[in-house]
Amino acid sequence: MSAIIPFEIHEEVSRKYFDKGKDVTTWTPTNKQTTMLSSTASYILFGGSRGGGKTDAAIRWFLYDIHHEKFRGLVIRRNAKDLTDFVDRANQVWSKFGAKKTGNPAKFTFPSGAIIYTGHLGTDDAYTAYQGHEYHKILIEELTHIPTQELFEKLMGSLRSTEPDLTPQFLATTNPGGPGHEWVKEYWKITDIECENGKKFEEGGLTRLFVPANIEDNRHLADADPQYVQFLKNLPPDLRAKWYEGSWEDIDTENQYYASRITRMKAQGRITKVPIEPSLRTFVVYDIGLKDKMVLWYFQIHGREVRIVNCYANRNKPLKHYSDNQYTFQTDNDIIIEKVFLPHDGNVRSVVDDNLQTRYEKMVELGWNVGFSPNVPISDGIDAVRELIGHCVIDEIRCKEGIRALRAYQKEFDEKMNRYKNTPLHDWASDNADSFRYLALSFPEVMTTGISNIAQMQKNLFKRRKK
What we know:
By secondary structure, the protein is an alpha/beta fold. It contains 17 helices and 20 strands.
């Protein structure tokens, strides 16, 4: 790929492939867009605030290779709706170069024979659907929506080329935040101080480039819509840092329910390697998801200390899958799980594993001693977590994703009123946080007076609420 600015490529391609009876509008990139588009790095992250011109540049990025008959590109977004938005914008540009859009998800076929496919991550097999395929360019929009590096690397298995004049290249666009924030930040070694003007380095024989961009870099939008710029400036501090400044640093704010407590736990060394001891009482708490994740927190009681030793999550699996996880955990660690707690709706009859059973009945059938977490308002459960968490130590490895979710759990933001609501935001962090809330609410039954003062603390909490 030649390192030239994109509008020169546009003119060259349009002369060869575009219907000369139509007009092709010249597009002028910003400085940050030019940096990204002219790079030969293997893995590029174009990430920053809202309005930085990321998607506009990503659409043009594919135009370098549409003259090659064997070129194959792939665009991936989080869900079908987000993909539709991208396809509509891409079609406005690519159709000017002769592309024909067909199918759902959309496929763009250019006059040369080059093809760009689109897909989303809203299906069960999304991360393995492209195995065995060859794509010379892959674009993932909003990369931080992918929760783990492992899932990202499954997608990257299809980024390769058997054509000597087509060099594989990956591009991601994203804003800071989301379930994949931490691994993306680590993968591109992002720090706000070092990366103000971007960062390029080699690792594992591949070059990675991070290009930061914010709305002030995109004068096309900033000048055309000053009200949107002012909206971003007027946001609460945490959102302003991410959406306007494009900051990747973590900021503890009042809208996050547990963030300051998680930060304090790290400073006190209570997020660390936690041993699993066979002699300690062991419990499991569930958050039962239908379309969402199913999350299990494993914990042990050690005097006044609550040891959070494991967090397991999955989706679209039968209850037996999670039961098997518990049996394996027992065997591997030589422990006995004393009781399994389900949320209050675990006794609702529904189709479970092709049988009309309650989840409670199914778990009993699978051999577990089962109880229920109390049915109390969400706000009471959040207070219970805040009081309990000071007595916890959490395993930093086995509970890594759960810790990230607890830290990110926050209030819903009302963009019309430009303020936070008093209700939790339902996003990627909710399921882990809900399950941990059930953990905190289950303590009055878990603990017996005399073993620890935690039980009395929780009982007093409930007494105060009843008054």
